[in-house]
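Hello again, I could really use a second opinion on something today. I've been staring at a protein lately and its backbone has me curious. Please have a think about how the structure follows from the sequence. I owe you a coffee for this, so here goes:
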Amino acid sequence: MTTPALGYIPPMTKGITDNPAYVISLVEMLEEEGIESIWTVEHVIMADQYEPLYPYSEDGKAPTAPDTLMPDPLEWLAFAAARTEKLRLGTAVVIASQHSAAILAKRVATLDALSQGRVRLGVGIGWQREEYDAIGVPYRDRGRRLDETIEAMRTLWHEDFATYQGKHVSFENVHMDAKPANGETVPILIGGSSEFAARRAGRLGDGWYPYVISPEAFAEGVETIARTANDAGRDPADVELTIWPASFDFTRTMDVPFVQSYVDAGASRVMISQGESQAVDLEGQRGFIRRYQDEVLAKL
């Protein structure tokens, strides 16, 4: 069995995540240590009080703190791209249903071209109604909006003069001059742990990246992807599977059988985070990465 790739979630802290010298040193260190990819998140705003509640915690509260900082994910990755050569650049996730499909497609294609094909675009629908309201995008029907955004972006990337007609996204015979590095597309990973997300990954995704999901539920999602992909005439093997085990149980980062259960279900990329290292300094994070590589990744 092939050893899974190792992805990394950087700190999201004021004074660190927006410190250019720190970020440069961080991404250069990650590349030196053989990290395959780095992953950023998106929330344009966070409401003080939100309804519906955050779906991934028992108390319905998002895991943010007064010093949490979530910069624009693509802008941050563009900065990281300029200081690295191999590190893949992932979003986990861009709330693509809040974006103009054409504008997002051009931003992503530009970053992919300049990074020579290193972008992995994770997309989702989000959960904050207040965030949609602040942006000026309807909350209702956001799943269909996401589907159309994915399809429309691929059309703009692939076609010289593109036409797409949907309920929420439409254009006719338009040319987007910015193209991905391969001239065709950028891999799109579907975020979310629900059955709906797994089915979307099977129908439309190049990958699936669930969050806060047990090994058993992850395996069920993989089966859902396979069934849905087959029904859509797609090869399930073309859907890359990414998992962050500690998002489900933060105490089991170094638990080899626990991580192995996700890999056995099909995960080809395992994520770790700066938070798990319990270190802000770069050498502390470097030590954690090496320990994880030796004590967990090498044993999978």
Notes: The chain is about 40% helix and 15% strand.
